[in-house]
From TrEMBL:
SUPFAM superfamilies: Acyl-CoA N-acyltransferases (Nat) (SSF55729). Residues 41-91 form the N-acetyltransferase domain. It holds the Pfam family Acetyltransf_1. InterPro entries: Acyl_CoA_acyltransferase (IPR016181), GNAT_dom (IPR000182). This is GNAT family N-acetyltransferase. It comes from Paenibacillus gallinarum. Coiled coil: none annotated. It comes from the Bacteria.
Length: 103
């Protein structure tokens, strides 16, 4: 059984995410590149009230990412938007993968 850890991060080292960015681009997904750009410029750092950024780690390697933002189209602060979700096919396609912890 492959075990993965989901970790909430306060600061993203975008350099550590580049392998996942390259992998996602090779599949035709460019939203992680946007995540890195927006995070670097401060446009979206997932630091508003109720927002969060999560990494999926397998053997200390980043194999997934997901952000949660406030929904700009809702008046309720209890409504969020999942943003920049990506999980590596090497993990996503394994039925035996279990996510251990949501921090």
């Amino acid at each position: 059984m492959t075990e993965c850890l989901i970790a909430k991060v306060k600061h993203l080292d975008t350099h550590k995410l580049m392998q996942l960015v390259d992998e996602s681009k090779s599949e035709g997904f460019f939203h992680l590149e946007r995540l890195v750009t927006d995070y670097g410029t401060g446009t979206n750092t997932f630091d508003k009230n109720g927002e969060a950024l999560f990494l999926v780690l397998k053997n200390s390697e980043i194999v997934g990412v997901c952000g949660l933002n406030q929904d700009p189209f809702s008046d309720s602060k209890k409504v969020g938007r999942v943003r920049r979700l990506y999980v590596s096919p090497s993990v996503n396609s394994q039925n035996e993968t279990h996510f251990l912890e949501l921090s």
